[in-house]
Amino acid sequence: MNWAGIRAEFPALENRTYLNTATFGQLPLRTLAAVERHFSRRDEYLCADFLTWFGDMDQTRALVAELIHCQAEDIAFVMNAASALSLLLGGMEWHAGDRIVTLRDEFPNQYYFAASLAREGVELVEMDRIDALPANTRAVLVSTVNYASGYRPDLESLSRITHEAGALLYVDGTQSLGALQFDVRAVRPDMLAIDGYKWLLCPNGATFFYITPELRGKIRPPVMGWRSDRGWRSVDDLHHGAPTLPDAAEKYEAGMLNFPSLYGLRESVRMMLEIGPERIERRVLELADCAAEAMRAAGAEVRYRNTNIVAGHWPDRDASALAKKLQAEGIIVAARHGNLRVSPHFYNNEADLERLTKALR
């Protein structure tokens, strides 16, 4: 691959060493151009063609479905991953004694709504690893990659354990999709949510979730709007009365979409499919290995390999202070829960990692 040519799509990388995609991904020029084309089109047609925008979003669903290996009708768009998880947990019927399981030190999304269900007698259980589930577990909430440590749980094994217990599996793929491959056919989540502003290199608000047909039959939309009825495209004569919900996941969208960001999502995903998800994953893991070696050479403990988020821990150094010092030298990383977090993407190169190595020394 001509990685240097691909890097030219990201002019923001020219003046600083950016190794912090786990916080924000940088936007490629072609994605920015796609957003600008949408606004230019609004001016040109005065939005009279707005129904065609939804057709473009159907193309976006198809590209996303190709990326994660599902059907386009399994994809719905929302503003953030928290909205998808809230839809799931808020749409379930809970009883006293039910349990929700997550991994210890998960991202706060996986805690907050689940913990709020304590008022209904639902217990949130944190586990260091999930080899078996406690009785009355109704849902398991995990991330593909831990945002602070880089830990990657065995999702296929976890899916088997969860479904054998009769529970639902929710997976947040925000911290890996776009860097690492994901196949819903292998993992079999009941719901998968991805916020695209990190590894998918999209503007904020470009978020989608996958939901199985079976779960769509159980979770009713929490919001109803003019697109809740299956005949919503007949805008000259919209249905008045109780809606007939479509079978597809779009029934959870209710109204207008965040078109500018979703046009950006479409172009970023198209770029990744052109490069090839397997090539991207291989490149990301190569660069992540370089980052791990840089931190180990500087005396840090790096617990996890084969991950796109590399977390180094020094027992005698303040990770937050170290991250600020590196930023002052033009190297953008992050600190999370006592770890220095380095998260390279395919737009990085070996020179970026060499600068990190020298700075840590």
Note the run of SSEs as H and E: HEHHEHEHEEHEHEEHHHEEHEEEH
Percent helix, as a range, is 25-40%
Q: Please tell me the overall pLDDT.
A: 97
What about the largest sheet?
7 strands, mixed
In terms of quaternary structure, what is this? single chain
Count of DSSP-assigned helices: 12
The CATH homologous superfamily of the largest domain is termed: Type I PLP-dependent aspartate aminotransferase-like (Major domain)
Instruction: Please tell me what the overall shape is.
Output: globular
Proportion of residues in β-strands = 5-15%
CATH topology of the largest domain: Aspartate Aminotransferase, domain 2
CATH architecture of the largest domain: 3-Layer(aba) Sandwich
Give the spatial strand order of the biggest sheet.
2-8-7-6-5-3-4
- Rg (C-alpha, Å): 21 Å
The total tally of domains equals: 2
Q: What is the straight-line distance between the termini?
A: 31 Å
Tally the beta strands.
13
Specify the structural class. alpha/beta
Kindly describe this structure.
This protein is of the alpha/beta class and 361 residues long. The chain starts with a helix and ends with a helix. It has 2 domains: 3-27 and 277-360, Aspartate Aminotransferase, domain 1 (Alpha-Beta Complex); 39-274, 3-Layer(aba) Sandwich (Aspartate Aminotransferase, domain 2), CATH 3.40.640. Helix 3 packs parallel to helix 9 (259-275). Helices cover 38% and strands 15% of the residues. 43% of the residues are buried. The chain contains 12 helices and 13 strands. The protein has a 7-stranded mixed beta sheet with strand order 2-8-7-6-5-3-4, sandwiched between helices. Strands 9-10-13-12 form a 4-stranded antiparallel beta sheet, covered by helices on one side. Strands 1-11 form a two-stranded parallel ribbon.
